Amino acid sequence: MRRVSVIGIGCTPFGKQNGIGIIDLALHACRxxxxxxxxxxxxxxxxxxxxxxxxTLVRQGSLAPIVxxxxxxxxxxxxxxxxxxxxxxxxxxxxxLLIASGxxxxxxxxxxxxxxxxxxxxxxxxxxxxxxxxxxMRLGLTFPGTFGIIMRxxxxxxxxxxxxxxxxxxxxxxxxxxxxxAHFQEPVTIEEILESRLICDPLRLYDCTPISDGAxxxxxxxxxxxxxxxxxxxDVIGSGHATGPATLFEMADLTTFEASVAAGQQxxxxxxxxxxxxDVAEVHDCFTIAEIAAIEDLGFVEKGEGGPAxxxxxxxxxxxxxxxxxxxxxxxxxxxxxxxxxxxxEIVAQLRGEAINQVKDAEIGLAHNLGGTGAVSTVHIxxxx
Amino acid sequence: xxxxxxxxxxxxRCKCLAVRPxxxxxxxxxxxxxxxxxxxxxxxxxxxxxxxxxxxxxGQEPYDIAVIDLDEGLRVTARLTVPEEREAMIGDPVIFxxxxxxxxxxxxx
Lengths: 385, 109
Known about the structure:
heterodimer; A: 385 residues; alpha/beta; Peroxisomal Thiolase, Chain A, domain 1; nine-stranded mixed sheet; two-stranded antiparallel ribbon; 13 helices; 36% helix; B: 109 residues; mainly beta; CATH 2.40.50.840; five-stranded mixed beta barrel; three-stranded antiparallel sheet; 49% strand; globular
């Protein structure tokens, strides 16, 4: 297997992007990534685009070829990838595989979602389509409802406190307050979180991500060619992609996402690293409790110790393992199909030493993307040369 | 209180249980998975109150959804009925009440 590097990144601002359609969002991120890599369109050999629900939200299908043609790419293979909230983590994974296999030298990967132009009811139902329509979603369970059930169980099983869970949002909203691309740029206090509207007990409004528009992209390149384009390539040293149950009743433990555990183990094994080798991480905080589950599932802390770890500052900027320095999904926003690559965007910026909330001397970073109610996860480990 | 049997599915070979019919057992891959009636008794593993429902359930909110561990060892997700004067707690005993078009309904014992 050949080694793969990231040589270019792009990301639109996240939030409500009035008047900018889904194609233009994707074009913006892709052009930024190609410009960053000084890469002419004629060199791109394949394109993967992560997107979850564009047909429902903006009545646009065929996204990958439309975006590629508008970018001026050649008659290359273009594929749209759908894995709910992990759509572009999977797009990145497949771009890596295509180069690792030797089939291509240069692959463009992107993710996009346009959410704010649809009615909230339609957005809620579209998101719920990532759950199991035959069982739990038919019952009237929602995405926040799933995480409300997980949160109550985590608090019961490990003594995690409501305040510890809220600290995830306090931390991420603080990190995001300096990120000009974030949807929410104001910090939030524990009191504001605990007094915000109950959505699905014990989960409250400020435990949730906002509905946002956005796109992100990366240029992947065979590692031995990377220095033709950049003097600071970031190498992909571990890639994991795994499946788990899409329902709560099929989870053996309501506080553990099997897909995250398996994807993490794959990535660590390939990289020959352990969780404590990671200098900086972007993890999938679609809800506050999801970040606590993620740092446990990825082995940063023991299962059940995620709450105290967040409260003690382990995952804060300046902590032992800064997590979501970008502000995470809770602050940046969660344009579903774009999220996985926005995490890669932040990790690459961190490893280049040009991030807004720069983690000092970061050499190895991890990006964790989770799709649906745990049905799919990707984990990527990146390293600077 | 009325007792109703809860229908589930059991592998004819390894006897493991499933909520849904399967063409093959997920554990031993045997191809005979048969309908079976369970007691409908179990305990509350976790639950939430849905206050912002999907459009089709607008007007029903708030309603409770629970994950329940049945005495026979099967885990199910169901609607939960909590009497007015009661407050549900994890570990509380629950019992199957009825099957509705949207799925099973359990209630606190």
